[in-house]
Amino acid sequence: MVSEIAKKAAEKEIREELRIAAIKNAIEFGTAREGALIGRLISKFPELKSKMKEISAMAKEAVDEINGMSAAEIKKASKKYEKLFEEEKRRKIEESAEARLELKGVSGSFATRFPPEPSGYMHIGHAKVAFMEQRFAQMYGGKLFLYFDDTNPEKEKQEFVDAMKRDLAWLGIEFDREYYASDNIESLYGYAERLIESGNAYACLCDAAKLKESRLKMIGCEHRKQDTLENMRLWKEMLGRKFKENEAVLRLKAEIDSKNTAMRDPTLFRIKYSLHYRQGGRYAAWPTYSFNTPIVDSLNGVSDVIRSKEYEMTDELYYRILDLLSMGKPRIHSVARLEIANNMTSKRKLNELIKQGKIHGYDDPRLVTITALRRRGILPEAIKRLALRFGMSKTESAVSINMLLAENRKLIDPTAKRLFFVEKPFMLTVSGIPERMRKISIRLHPSTELGYRKYKLNDRFFINTADALKLKEGTRVALKDAFSVRIEKLGDGKAEGTYMKENAEERIQWVNEGNYGECSIEVIGDLLKGEAFNDESIKVSKGYVESFAANLDDGEVVQFERVGFFKVDDKNAMLFISL
Q1: Residue 521 in contact with residue 566, Cβ under 8 Å?
Q2: What is the crossing angle of helices 2-29 and 52-67, to 10°?
Q3: What is the CATH number of the domain that holds 470?
Q4: Do β-strands 494-500 and 460-464 pair in parallel, antiparallel, or remain unpaired?
Q5: Are 531 and 573 in contact (CB under 8 A)?
Q6: What is the 3-class SS of 169-190, one letter each residue?
Q7: Are residues 307 and 210 part of one domain?
Q8: What's the domain range around 397?
Q9: What pTM was estimated for this model as a whole?
Q10: Alpha carbons 118 and 164: distance in angstroms, whole number
């Protein structure tokens, strides 16, 4: 009963989607068309591709209903969906790619930087910013720098630096220069002392809980009133390792009662005794991102900063520090993050899933890290197209992974070899095959010249059990790209048929008993279901593939007809992962 109710609810939702599409189509073009309705529905619910017959019937009903209405009636019916149509129109404009790739106020020489923190692996959100910065540097004839923001010794590793540089090279992003925040510590100490001497920074000995509470309540602590000499003395003790970790910090004397929480006397330096991957144990007082970034940007001649909208609250702090130090100020341009729906990029959460054994590592093909996307078979150009698609929009939204996969399919389709894959094999024995039909050559691609796979056939074939269940005695089917068969007899797990000269309309995939190999395919789904881990995020199927698969290379992409695009993940194990 429950499943029947769920089925009816799903059908009701589909019919409503089709009706909405029919109304929109009729408003825009004067009449509703079935093809437009089906295209819209499949783009929203790709899983319905396997139910085209039922969908087509429902689409026809929706078209007949709306086309039978007058223009006034259609307009009245559309009132209910005005907000939805406006939102779709706005999103379409936002997605109109590179026409919106411009920066306001750019003049003179141009230089920007890509500033990752080497505390994890790059993900698609990082790639968006890097691609945008690369494009702007090209547009304005400027420079692009690689700046590692590495002033947190507890989290950063050379492993992550190397991985990021490897990912960036694979993405095709080149830099004019590379530099590190941690190489500027001595200079940053000097700038900190200038703030202390000018009365704009003070040493605070409040414990973390008290500091957090005072900032929340917008109350200044007693250390705020210390004179310059005392602040300098405490600062020197911080540098001289006289305090334990978290026992003392250097804070900016800003506006403790500011509505902008970033300006409530933020921390500029804190004490950390962990060994740094690059500087070892040379330093104990480490600057925060908020302090070192504006200074290092100015020192390196950065003219324009492109960064995520989430940092907008810190723009005031960025400029305050540079104003107090009388340093040159880059222009800041904010842009929305690129987030993939039903996925995650949080290092902490991903590490938890790795510890729990739910994902295999940062290259798990369900993830949107660059190393995972590369392993899955996503091309750099597909990532670039998606990254630039939204321009400088500041509208936050999580896009479907299907948008990336669609871009990727456009790129791989012309070069992906076609093969047959049979899931849950069902034996079909065919008699009467002429000798001339036993030697067969099948194109590896329907339109691109990629060559042929050639086989000598015996009488026994494997077909999908799903196809076999539709057969009846007397049914005529075509073994795709081979010949047609008339089904004579059906049994448990096997069927018998005879060769036919005439062509049958129904075509099915197959592999021949003398020309096949066992393989596994992993169909990748969403990592999350709501907020929880999706236990069905990978579905494994075993079956048979044409023996030509042995000629494929590790990493090569193929299309299993009627199944989808797959990448050879492990040739020895004959394991394929979906794209």
Answers
A1: yes
A2: 50
A3: 2.40.240.10
A4: unpaired
A5: no
A6: HHHCCCCCEEEEHHHHHHHHHH
A7: yes
A8: 339-412
A9: 0.81
A10: 8
Tell me, rounded to whole angstroms, the distance of Cα 163 from its chain centroid. Answer: 18
Yes or no: say if 181 and 147 are a contact pair by the CB < 8 Å rule. yes
The C-alpha atoms of residue 175 and residue 115 are separated, in whole angstroms, by 12
Enumerate the β-bridge partners of residue 280.
Answer: 276
Which pairing describes strands 557-560 and 417-419: parallel, antiparallel, or unpaired? parallel
Rounded Cα distance, 494 and 216, in Å: 73
Q: Classify residue 102: in a domain, yes or no.
A: no
pLDDT tens-digit map of 230-256: 999 999 999 999 999 989 999 999 999
426 within 8 A of 468, measured Cβ to Cβ = yes
- Specify if 123 maps to a domain: yes
Chain centroid to CA 441: how far?
39
Please, is 416 exposed, middle or buried when counting C-beta atoms within 10 Å of its C-beta (0-12, 13-18, 19+)?
buried
Q: Are strands 564-570 and 398-399 parallel, antiparallel or unpaired?
A: unpaired
* Total number of domains in the chain: 4
Question: Which neighbouring-strand residues pair with 520?
Answer: 542, 575
- State both tokens at 192: 């900190």
How many Cα atoms are found within 13 Å in the side-chain-facing hemisphere of 298? Answer: 18
Q: Does residue 106 form part of some domain?
A: no
Q: What are the helix and strand counts (H, E) for the chain?
A: 17, 29
Over the stretch 181-234, which tens digit does the pLDDT of each residue have?
999 999 999 999 999 999 999 999 999 899 899 999 999 999 999 999 999 999
Please report whether residue 107 resides in a domain: no
Which of 479, 517, 524 shows the shortest CA–CA distance to 500? 479
